[in-house]
């Protein structure tokens, strides 16, 4: 988990808008295994360790359903501490008859599903960084079938009702639909300070800090020029990027301003918006 601590910037928290808070809470507690840290009539903050908020959900008063073919969330990704944890959640999902996608990305093994509003979720475990293959500054990633037989070999099951996310679970990365890649790359690389570590043809790129395989994925799979969704639609509200120091956060803000991007204060955070309308809060 060294890529999700204070030495490099990383994605800390994802904030979603949902159509029905009660329905979403049931899903995130019973299926994903979150615990509720704080809750109001229209909002809830969810945690794995009982202290750190990884996901917040809220039900706007005038909310409408998730809008397709727009910019916004492709998926957020929860990083589990061990391969055994990944095997246990596979058994948990199987007992609940949850439909899953799955891939071996060489750097990681991943499961995919969606919440009741269609928000994409990845749950994964990393291989050791020593097993990642780098060609100069590009990390090798692929989309191979996940070997479930090997993953589950020798693993004792857990009862579905007993599953909870391990306390060391973190927000591993976020993957976004964007309208185009050129200005987006300038924003995240020259502005926020990340490095491009993989180009997936002309339609996607992956960026990170500190030689992680990726903290943020960016794609145009909803179409070049895809519009941003209405403000009141279910989906991504914002996400946070946590910098290792106040100086590093201030430098990112200065870099953004130097390329013509607005940065404003928002309840102790610095708020900005990427070229596709995705809202980001910069923390230190």
TrEMBL record:
Question: What Gene3D superfamilies does the annotation carry?
Answer: 2,3-Dihydroxybiphenyl 1,2-Dioxygenase, domain 1
Q: What molecular functions are annotated in GO for this chain?
A: lactoylglutathione lyase activity; metal ion binding
Q: Which SUPFAM superfamilies match?
A: Glyoxalase/Bleomycin resistance protein/Dihydroxybiphenyl dioxygenase (SSF54593)
Q: Does the keyword Nucleotide-binding apply?
A: no
- Tell me which domain of life the UniProt entry assigns to the organism this sequence originates from: Bacteria
* Keywords recorded for this protein, A-Z: Metal-binding
Q: Which is a Pfam family this sequence falls into?
A: Glyoxalase
Q: Which residues form a coiled coil?
A: none
Boundaries of every VOC domain copy: 10-126, 170-284
- Fetch the PANTHER family from UniProt: CATECHOL-2,3-DIOXYGENASE (PTHR43279:SF1)
Q: What is this protein called?
A: VOC family protein
Q: Which organism is it from?
A: Paenibacillus lentus
